[in-house]
Write a structure and sequence with these properties.
Elements lengths: L13 H6 L3 H10 L10 H23 L3 H27 L4 E2 L1 H14 L4 H13 L14 H5 L9 H9 L3 H4 L2 H8 L1 H21 L3 H24 L20 H6 L6 H6 L16 H12 L2 E2 L6 H11 L12 H4 L3 H11 L1
Antiparallel strand pairs: 1-2
Helix pairs in contact: 3-12, 4-5, 4-6, 4-12, 4-15, 5-11, 11-12
Bound molecules: zinc ion (ZN) (2 copies).
């Protein structure tokens, strides 16, 4: 069962800003403005991304014109489990430690994470911890102050800003280094990734249901990977720009209805940057109905996931009222119950909606 604890693991971040005696806030101030450093392009990545996107468009055409029914029906679930390898695995389990997992669940999530090919969990989590700690500064690997495209995928097309490298080296990764499964994936990534992300999704449909090589490769390997990449990238780009900020109006991350609609998780990005240790990456009730949260809850039901961390309603409410932009459906300034200044009514109304 979720443990409603607000204590954090030493990984996270908001309290760091308040308690490090100004060290981190000084750093943030120094890093805040993009310093005009010209990024050195990595042409190999650019060429590979161009090839990937042209091949994926061809895959999309094949999906509707040449694929077998089995491939057609399994395509969306395949994208969903791919995305799960990032959202439940690299993000909520390893980067933020929002819950604990037994060995079988860790193996499943490491397999799905390799299926998603966004680098080994160890490096993904390091970059993501830097992203949370130095959001919207030059040390943020996907700094959205450099524009939508940079935050989306441009950061993968150029060498890292020196501040990203410097701060990345200072991030505590001892918990990941103590996890033999994470270190196994890191050590053998260049062998595991091509087999799991590209070879398996090509040959399995060919042998199990007679799909052609052309469709298997372009649809189940490339298009599946490409779409899952964009789902995750949208969290770094659009979810740092255009949407509501019900929990903290002073930070860039937003709650983005477009991503919330697809229900793969991580659409409540304003909430997530305020309360990154919550396994739901979203508030309670109807605000947390995404595939990733349901997956973690199902694993908790099986006993494979445990010590799920969450945030008390009271803390969420206080924060929304103190720093939110007023767009929270219950605790925003525009809420008709709250205009009556009747806290009891507000609380009841939230319970109804949950
Ligand atoms: Zn973010
Ligand atoms: Zn995060």
């Amino acid at each position: 069962m979720p443990s409603n604890s607000e204590d954090i693991t030493g990984v996270l971040y908001e309290t760091d800003v308040q308690t490090v005696g100004g060290g981190l806030s000084r750093d943030l101030g120094r890093l805040k403005a993009t310093d005009g450093t010209k990024m050195e392009l990595v042409w190999l990545n650019i060429v590979l991304f161009v090839i990937l996107h042209i091949s994926s468009l061809y895959g999309l055409w094949l999906l509707f014109t040449a694929s077998t029914w089995t491939t057609f029906l399994l395509f969306i679930p395949a994208v969903a489990v791919t995305t799960l390898g990032i959202s439940a695995g690299a993000h909520r389990l390893w980067a933020h430690r929002t819950f604990k997992a037994n060995t079988p669940l860790k193996l499943i999530l490491l397999f799905l994470n390799t299926f998603a090919f966004q680098d080994a969990v160890y490096y993904w989590a390091r970059d993501h911890r830097v992203h949370h700690k130095y959001t919207e500064t030059d040390a943020d690997p996907y700094n959205s102050n450099r524009g939508w495209f940079f935050a989306h995928m441009g950061w993968l097309c150029c060498r890292k800003h020196p501040a990203v490298v410097e701060k990345g080296k200072q991030i505590d990764l001892s918990d990941l280094e103590a996890d033999p499964l994470v270190m196994f994936q890191k050590k053998y990534y260049l062998l595991l990734m091509p087999v799991i992300c590209f070879f398996l999704p090509t040959v399995v449909p060919m042998f199990l249901w007679g799909e052609s090589f052309n469709v298997s490769w372009h649809v189940m390997a490339l298009l599946r990977w490409c779409i899952s990449l964009h789902f995750v990238w949208l969290v770094n780009s659009s979810a740092h720009m255009h949407g509501m900020r019900p929990y903290d109006k002073n930070i860039c991350p937003v709650n983005l209805s477009f991503l919330i609609f697809f229900r793969f998780g991580e659409g409540y990005h304003n909430y997530h940057h305020v309360f990154p240790w919550d396994y739901k990456s979203a508030e309670l009730g109807k605000y947390s109905q995404d595939v990733t949260t349901k997956f973690i809850e199902f694993m908790a039901y099986l006993g494979w996931a445990y010590d799920l961390k969450s945030v008390s309603l009271d803390l969420v409410k206080q924060r929304a009222q103190r720093t939110g932009d007023g767009s929270h459906p219950v605790w925003g300034w525009g809420d008709k119950d709250q205009l009556k200044e009747d806290v009891g009514v507000t609380t009841r109304s939230h319970q109804r909606s949950g």
